[in-house]
Automatic annotation (TrEMBL), chains A, B:
KW Metal-binding (keyword) present: yes
Pfam families cross-referenced by the UniProt entry: RecR_C, RecR_HhH, RecR_ZnF, Toprim_4
Gene: recR
Family matches, as SUPFAM superfamilies: Recombination protein RecR
HAMAP family: RecR
Name of the protein this chain belongs to: Recombination protein RecR
Toprim domain segment(s): 81-176
Amino acid sequence: MEFSSKLLEKAVDEMSQLPGVGKRTALRLVLHLLGQPKENTLQLAEALSTMRNDIKFCKNCNNISDTDLCEICSNPNRVEDVICVVEDIRDVMAIENTSSFKGLYHVLGGKISPMDGVGPNDLNIEPLVQKAREGKIKELIFALGSTMEGDTTNFYIYKQIQEFNITTSTIARGISVGNELEYTDEITLGRSIINRIPFETSLKS
Amino acid sequence: MEFSSKLLEKAVDEMSQLPGVGKRTALRLVLHLLGQPKENTLQLAEALSTMRNDIKFCKNCNNISDTDLCEICSNPNRVEDVICVVEDIRDVMAIENTSSFKGLYHVLGGKISPMDGVGPNDLNIEPLVQKAREGKIKELIFALGSTMEGDTTNFYIYKQIQEFNITTSTIARGISVGNELEYTDEITLGRSIINRIPFETSLKS
């Protein structure tokens, strides 16, 4: 693409570095901004740079936060020794929305994925093992996505903390509420039969 | 969505004002930026605000430019009295890529569209009529998209400049090069028969 303006070209180049945004989409977005009042663009730019400069990660759980200790970790009503291992802030938000968990989180910042060049040392795993070593964890809940990378990460962490007498669990895999059996994939359905739960338990939830 | 960080929330809110970007996509984009070196985000923010603050519109054709007169309008080799009417810079770039046009452009900045609240006065039409009145235009080529709004805008401008003895044309509508007849819509095919061109002419292009 040849641009009549270097400023426009630079803006489009920068925008097109976002994931899923090509040159054409970037041009569309930038032209949209040009058609809006100047303040909109300046506010967007300001919000992005302030966010990147000032944002913090919670010392305890590594979640994104405005303070040294995030709201969840600093809440005295949460159960401190039950820890849910998640990939990133989106998972924290999703679980918080269910109001079904009263413990704390531990945000890994990704999953082990050799294909993408992400090894255990690139993730926030060591502080979790350290907590386990210090006897601060009673139960650990693995809540990573049910993929090869998620399972690998779960297993890696499990091996690291195995010796510390911690109850471990993973969130249940099974048929989504409201789904028909016939549309469920075979692996999920097969596992949901093997890992069946007592009927009385299912009545309570 | 409830965010654990006001800074993050603000950035997501601003990003989600871009067309086609919802809250979830905005969060994904912002988390991507957080995973990248700080410079990337700052450069993006800088490029956007500089672009919005410093960009100019060419005095003559209203195209986006870094100078008062754009590169095309200031090029002495272009034919000054043949003017191609287009919607925005993307159309200029598309036509320039063909190397088939040696005249100047006139960028309207949109199309007349009552549904979107865009009337003739919101567009850059008056300067074009003024040029016509001053006898600066020999030929006017309408190159707007072939939609209801495009046709309306063409007709509106045509009525305004009708009295000034200007040759007017629109870019040809017809079957795309390489297309089979059976997949062409009826209106295009019908028009392409009515507006057929001499075979000798078609050999030259």
